[in-house]
Amino acid sequence: MTAVLPDTDSGAARRRRAAYVTLRVSGLLLTVLVLGHFAITHVTTDVADTDSRFIDERWASALWIGWDGLMLAATLLHAVLGLWAVIADYSPGRRRAWRGVLLTAAGLVFACGMALLVVAATGGR
Amino acid sequence: MTLPQFLFFCAFAVVALVIIAFGVVVVRTARLDDGGPFVSRALVARLARPGRDRAELQRWAFYLHRVSGVGLFVFLCLHVGDVSLYVISKDLYDEVHHVYGSVPMRIAEVGLLFGLLFHTFNGLRLVAVDVADLGLAASTRALYGVLAATVACGLAGSVFILGPVFA
């Protein structure tokens, strides 16, 4: 008698597996990046002091440009994958529309954020 | 309050409304689709008794994970927007940034910290559940750890965030 094995080799199954792993790996990465970001802007420096001078100093270093760029990319990847599942659960009728909204928002935030980092790294000073 | 600060305040109000609206969707859908956990005093009493109703407790951790995740994403959109002002004009950035140091915004930042900590620790728990193949009892104990760590780190962080208000 042959057992019915779950489909593990089709393209859809491979994509689901990749999304599952990416969601978790980006989450692990964000644990360090985002908690570090919050600690720097709220614990070691008071929020009121994170003004444009604070950003001048921070973005003068390649470490923080890299940190913020990686954090932005990982966050958006994590958000799109997570919200993709949320949309699948909550909007049976308007899935395509909500996915469009999600991808547009994530794309805009990515474009704005990366452009910001590039300008700050090259022409800001 | 200047016009840019007022606009930031309005955008922040929109963020808060989206979080509340999504919370309502999650709770309503929970009641309709997932077997009817009504938000009631009886439910809270049941969840508060350790080990009494583990599956129900984990379900509420899942809902809280979703709501906090959506909240963090919506706040991120606003936050990238306000930091982008830095390249347009540093003075404009500083003007809007003043709002971050105000008392109401600091209280919102405490909420942000708690959401961030819960989402992080609960996310680590979900990874641990899969990697170490934890059962219901062990993952429930891990959830108590998540809640304890969230409250402990959240209160510690709140001291730093709200400290300057009282100083």
- Would you count the extended β strands of chain B for me? 0
Number of domains of chain A: 1
Say how many strands of chain A there are.
0
Low-pLDDT parts of chain A are none
Largest interface: A-B, 35 and 38 residues
Main beta sheet of chain B: strand number and arrangement?
none
Instruction: Spell the H/E element sequence of chain B.
Output: HHHHHH
Share of helix among residues of chain A?
A: over 70%
User: What is the strand content of chain B?
Assistant: under 5%
Quote the CATH topology of chain A: 3 helical TM bundles of succinate and fumarate reductases
Low-confidence stretches of chain B: none
Within CATH, the superfamily of chain B carries the name Fumarate reductase/succinate dehydrogenase, transmembrane subunit
Q: Give the CATH H-level superfamily of chain A.
A: Fumarate reductase/succinate dehydrogenase, transmembrane subunit
N→C terminal distance of chain A: 72 Å
Radius of gyration of chain B: 19 Å
Q: State the CATH class of chain B.
A: Mainly Alpha
> What structural class should be given to the helix and strand makeup of chain B?
mainly alpha
| Assigned CATH class of chain A | Mainly Alpha
Overall 3D geometry of chain B?
A: elongated
- What percent of residues of chain B adopt helix (DSSP H or I)? over 70%
Question: Can you characterise this structure?
Answer:
- Chain A: Keywords: Membrane, Transmembrane, Transmembrane helix.
- Chain A: This is Succinate dehydrogenase.
- Chain A: The chain crosses the membrane at residues 21-44, 64-88, 100-121.
- Chain B: It holds the Pfam family Sdh_cyt.
- Chain B: Belongs to the cytochrome b560 family.
- The complex is a heterodimer of chains A (125) and B (167).
- With 125 residues, chain A is mostly helical.
- Chain A has a single domain (11-122), classed as 3 helical TM bundles of succinate and fumarate reductases (Up-down Bundle).
- Helix content of chain A is 78%, strand content 0%.
- In chain A, helix 1 packs across helix 3 and helix 3 (62-90) packs antiparallel against helix 4.
- Chain A is elongated.
- The mean pLDDT of chain A is 87.
- Chain B is mainly alpha-helical.
- Chain B has one domain: Fumarate reductase/succinate dehydrogenase, transmembrane subunit (3 helical TM bundles of succinate and fumarate reductases).
- Helix content of chain B is 85%, strand content 0%.
- Chain B has 6 helices and no strands.
- Chain B has helices at 3-33, 41-48, 54-88, 90-97, 103-131, 136-166.
- In chain B, helix 3 crosses helix 5 (103-131), helix 3 (54-88) packs across helix 6 and helix 5 packs antiparallel against helix 6.
- The two termini of chain B are 23 Å apart.
- The mean pLDDT of chain B is 87.
- At the A-B interface, helix 1, helix 3 and helix 4 of A face helix 1, helix 3, helix 4, helix 5 and helix 6 of B.
